[in-house]
Amino acid sequence: MTIENGHQHENGRRKPVRVYMDGCFDMMHFGHANALRQAKSLGDVLVVGICPDDEIRRNKGPPVMNNDERLAAVESVKWVDEIITNVPYDVTADFLKTLIEDHGVDFIVHGDDPCLGPDGRDVYAAVKEEKKFRTVKRTEGVSSTDILDRIMRCEGDLVTKPTKMMNGENGMNEMNGTNGTNGTNGLKGSNGTNGTNGTHGTHGTNGTNGIKNSSPFHRPSTFLPTTRRLLEFVGNSNVAKGDGINNVVYVDGAFDMFHAGHIAALREAQKLGDFVLVGIHDDITVNSYKGGNFPIMNLHERVLSVLSSKYVNEVIIGAPLEISEDMIKTMNISVVVHGVHKDKRLKSVDPNEPDPYKVPKQLGIFREIDSKSELSVHDIVRRITQKRDQYEKRNEKKVAQEQVYLKNKEYVVEL
Length: 415
Description:
The chain has 16 helices and 13 strands. With 415 residues, the chain is of the alpha/beta class. The strands form three sheets. A five-stranded parallel β-sheet has the order 6-5-4-7-8. Helix 6 packs across helix 16 (388-408).
């Protein structure tokens, strides 16, 4: 057997390289998806291991999403080929042997941040001893810990706070300005969603003058949306080139905290045509119908999460709330789909405002689909707030590891 360009060969025939990456994948986000994308680039077949609920409780604390929800999220990712459930959190020598002998795994991949067990031991120590470990770059600016922190620091506003119409007197300022819902240091901070003082900036909702400052992860978001990242997530998968796309299914919404309910709806939408086009509303539009401090994830984050799904072909970034006939013709839309599972969207605070789906309904191309999922972003928020003390302890355990990582952080090339 020889190895050429990273691929094994037996008797002159190329042997596919099988890469393994495991994780909890709780509240699956674009950082998880980007790690899986990089892992897949190291080989031909990506095998993903998902830790069960009891393993997560023992090693990290209570998961927010259950086994089935986390499985659905991982299955949706377009770079995933195979899944192994109920894997141990600690990749022991015995389990490594199982991966190699029973699943044909060539090496194991993890991000460049440390992964430690409750005893402080590296859970990949046995893998590293056998020279079977590979590293990929961690995606900065997002983590399950960070998302938990966002929700806990403004939970009251997420659950209960009403909002004004965005086209009202103080509409724009409600999100970004001095007269916003949260006063001088408005929802997104004085310098906008992604600015220095943005969502997680020093003067935003979660900043120095925000609701709560005690979080161990209280620092400005380091997520940097780039055209490269967007292109990596689009890749060469499913986006048709040129004209002539037929049977286009259009689905729009916030897709905040992209979860199993969204995925189920998109899977059903895919059955209605050949090309799924997803319209993702911008932050101001989402806040106009969800209120409070929604969305939890900003537009760029939500776009990447949706693009990672194998049920999606293309997205419209900052899609209009109202679907016009011109838009339908421009995008060659055959059917407009709206999910009906526990949908909490307010079409308008003002009952005289138009129905966003008026035109598709008049054209006879509007369809409602039932995702058969009871999960919503509000349910996720409630789960977290009901166990707030446990999640705060979970985050506090993570802070020491995070501080060490940031102090010793070195540049790692992203694949």
